[in-house]
Amino acid sequence: MIKKKTTKKIQTVVYTVPVKKESDEPKDKARIINALNSLQASEGWAIIVKILDDNINYLEKCILDKFDPVTQQTLSETEIDMARIKRNLNIELKNTPEKYRKVVEDTGTKEETYDPYYQTKNEIDLATLKENRR
Questions:
Q1: Quick one: which of 82, 80, 85, 110 has its CA closest to 96?
Q2: Which helix (H) or strand (E) holds 104?
Q3: Rounded CA gap, 72 and 93, in Å?
Q4: What is the tens place of the pLDDT at every residue in 99-111?
């Protein structure tokens, strides 16, 4: 017996992005701040923060002990530096909603770059330098 092929039609949804007007700026600012406050109050963000806190604690233990408890290996200076960078990135990510809310409150506009990770080697070097000064 030959089975007949069935095809499903996929419906495409088109969303038109409204053009931003200058008069929309205050409303946009309030909307962004409210969205960031909602994000921080959500259960999902609480889970993300818990994961990030666990990562930060793990990385701090690796940095202080110079030993990775998971792999049971002693860490080299390069690996310790990488752990410091990862720790800083986790802290930055954890503070992202509050950081961007402050930017919007202070400047009245949102930042164009939402990427919490360092973009250049220079930014990594500066972060490492700041961490080593602590």
A1: 110
A2: helix 96-107
A3: 28
A4: 888 888 887 655 5
